[in-house]
Amino acid sequence: MNSYTLEELAEITGGEVLGDKGVRIVGVAGIREAGEGDITFLANPKYEPYLATTNASAVVADHDGGGDTAIIKVPNPSLAFLKIVSLFAENPFDKYPRGTHPTAMVHESSKIGKDVSIGPYVVVGKNVVIGDRSTILPLTCIFDDVKIGDDCLLFSSVVIKDRCEIHNRVIIHSGAVVGSDGFGYAKEGSNHQKIPQIGIVRLEDDVEIGANTTIDRATTGVTLIKRGTKIDNLVQIAHNVVVGEDSVLAAQVGVSGSTELGNNVTLAGQAGLIGHIRIGDGAMVGAQGGVTKSIDPGMRVSGYPAREHNYARKIYAASTRLPEMLKELRELRKRVMELERKGRGVDQAAEDD
Fold first, then answer.
1. 3-state helix, strand, coil in the chain (%, to 5)
2. For the chain, how long is the longest CA-to-CA vector?
3. Averaged pLDDT, groups of 10, the chain, 353 residues long
4. How, if at all, do strands 70-73 and 16-18 pair?
5. Which residues contact 228 (CB under 8 A, 6 or more apart)?
6. Residues 226-229: contacts with CB under 8 Å, at least 24 apart
């Protein structure tokens, strides 16, 4: 079992120990669940009250803590805790035996690199290339002419369709489908004629794809997920979409065809984007945001249709007062009508005189 002193962990994270540097850490846990020997972290102010009651032996935080628990003080607790968790996490590549399981079906024309693990009931089609040290877990299906790079990890029941390209250090979680047909039809009378989808999907280095996410192949050309982008579970990426480097797409996001996302874009949960628009570098779309037009670089939007975030908040705040405002409007309308009635009465009296 791995164990480290706080002094050692502080050196790894670039932090400062406030308390006993010799405290030995044997595990990691959340601030509420942690016990003796565990280290936890505090990044969200919402969890500040738990600092006084946690049973953890140490806490990673960006302040002094103010209690008896030892602190590793760092500017970025989340990043520091990530480094610490990595020390205790089991390397998934070490869990699985190298080699090809007897039940796997690997076509003789495929080229398998060094130290590759191919699990039970995996199917590998014709002319597939799998790079060194990659791991393909049970029931995964890799169609013809697929290229997979080095140090990739494909969990169980992943499907990679024909000719798609997976670069190095890519992680794809269970149930994901890469290279399914794009949703393309031409209408002939009342019938929908399928447009052949002859492009591919390319996942660049260090991309991660969540469980049950689907990435459609391009009609022609490439559906492209660029280096370092992370895509959550249950996301739909349509044909000919381009997602820039180091972007983050949360669960249940949907991106329509031929939309282009720049670098470092963030799409929060259930955001939906129409097709053929451009999302600029560093832009952010809030949860359930409905994007109907292009977004400038660095812009934050939310709501439906998506608007500048602060403006959208004002609209939402005003909408919560609609019943009260409607009541006031009816009362004002009633008073105006009464004043008008009285005004007409005065005018009539003047005429009679």
1. 20, 30, 50
2. 112
3. 90 94 94 94 89 92 84 94 90 87 98 97 98 97 98 98 98 98 94 96 98 98 98 98 98 98 98 98 97 97 91 85 91 90 70 63
4. antiparallel
5. 204, 205, 206, 207, 245, 246
6. 226/263, 228/204, 229/204
Q: How many CA atoms lie within 13 A of 105 on its CB side?
A: 10
For residue 305, say if its preceding peptide bond is cis, omega within 30 degrees of 0: yes
Q: Which amino acid is at 178?
A: V
**Residues 6 or more apart whose Cβ sits within 8 Å of residue 267:** 247, 248, 249, 250, 253, 255, 261, 273, 284, 285, 289
Euclidean distance between CA atoms 190 and 187, whole angstroms: 7
Catalytic residue annotation: 239
Which of 23, 45, 42, 20 has the alpha carbon at shortest distance from 31? 42
The whole-model pTM stands at: 0.86
Structure tokens at 178: 């890469």
